[in-house]
Amino acid sequence: MSSKSDTNGSYIGRAEECLDTLSKVQKLVGEHIAAADQDAIYKVDGHGIPRSDGHGTTLVSTYSGAELTRIMDINLPESGQGSQGLLDAISTTMHYSVNTWDPGFMDKLYASTDAPGLAAELVLATLNTNVHVYSTSPALTVIEKATTKALAGLFGFCDEHSGGISMQGGAASNLTSLLIARNFRFPEVKAKGISALSKPLAIFTSSDAHYSVTSAAVSLGFGTEAVYSVAVDKHGQMDVTDLERLIEQALEDGRQPFYVNATAGTTVRGAYDPLVKIGQTCHKHDLWFHIDTAWGGPAIFSNTHKHKLQGSQNADSITFNPHKMMGVPLTCSFLLARDLRKFYVANALSAGYLFHDELKNPAPTLGTEKKLPAAADVYDLASFTPQCGRRGDSLKLYLSWIYHGTLGYAKQVDLAFAACFYMTSQLSRLEDFLLVGDDPPPCCQCCFYYRPQILAENLFNNSDGAKVFQSKITRLVVAGLVQKGWMIDYAPGKLGEFLRVVTNRNSTTAIINGLVIAIVEAGKQAIQDLS
Q1: Which of 135, 215, 225, 446 could connect to 423 by a Cys-Cys bridge, CB 3.0–4.6 Å?
Q2: Which CATH number fits domain 154-340: 3.40.640.10, 1.10.760.10, 3.30.70.360, 3.30.300.30?
Q3: Using an 8 Å Cβ cutoff, are 507 and 39 in contact?
């Protein structure tokens, strides 16, 4: 060992320390995943493995927030507790967390990750770098440009300037698309602010779209009144006739229509808006056409389901979240572009202390938007977004795509859809269930009411009291399922709150059968509790 290494103690033993710690953490991670695998064996009978303390199952503990605060008793120490303190904290955290590896987790629009996902997160933490400028992240920059280019191509964005950028999540992607649409269409706003607009702007999104569009309107200074909620039809799809009506209404209101958000896979019912017709309307009125495919976008990998995204090639921008249906670790989100140069116009700013390539690619100012570099020539990726610090989340999709391949992802998507179709077919045969929406569903959400025939007099008069009673049943069923090792969700509906199950690539036929058993049992118990 050299004398420099001998005297520079801060650089001695880091590899050994990390490998020793990681080997111990790896054991805890393995036990966590193995517990979920073991629980899956019991799930086929409708029940998970109970916890030894009697509070919940392998899937989740059932302590309240106040109880868990007392139990965990978190105190940050003055003196470090070393490896053992770290391991104890990790063990406690994992014990009291939801085990999303458990196939009983069917509550939200994501589930567990997988082996390449874990590997990618470890690599990112090891590299610990920022993907804002090329100099600090050369490999990750090239990976992001290549991965987003390939992803954009799946949606029909095949121009030389097509591509995308990684974002912090779907909501951030939607907000950024709105910012880009505004700054590109009205470049004076970038310099002078929204007070430079001659008219207030108007945004259009369906009544079933994600709330992040309205949230973005608030954040960007438009206000909630700028958002026009377009009606949906019986399938949950945007009504294009109503969109046309609201565009005219916005003009009468003295507003300037400029942006339409369509959804491919709505949060509750999974509906795909009619993208071809919406695109035609946007072209007719010269509106920015954005598609939120955060949930339903992975259908693009499937030959069976990609037709639901027909018309996406006509969009200006697309939100896409691999961390949902595809199982890439949270968060992994992208904003894709038909022409990435528009992102540059909207977001690039002069900052010579960071962007040292400014002489070659100067930030656009008012009146210079046409003097733009080719998207392929811009390697300082923060220039395309309002962010500065950026994690290399593209690596997670890149490594997962290498591991599974396009065909592997197609198979996973098909499995998730098939599981949902199977569940609706099972429930439709049982007289105490009422499906909500289409059968089969448009995506991977099975929505339904538990409406036992024995309570027909109480439930079927459609009064406000009946809706309240139905909602009580729904909430009791959800609570009862947690005790049995299942997590599903609920949402408001015309007859009161209904149940919603989100299937995924791990939702086998046996798991669905077990869930149906558990729902029937929880439903019967709910009726007993209410009677």
Answers
A1: 446
A2: 3.40.640.10
A3: no
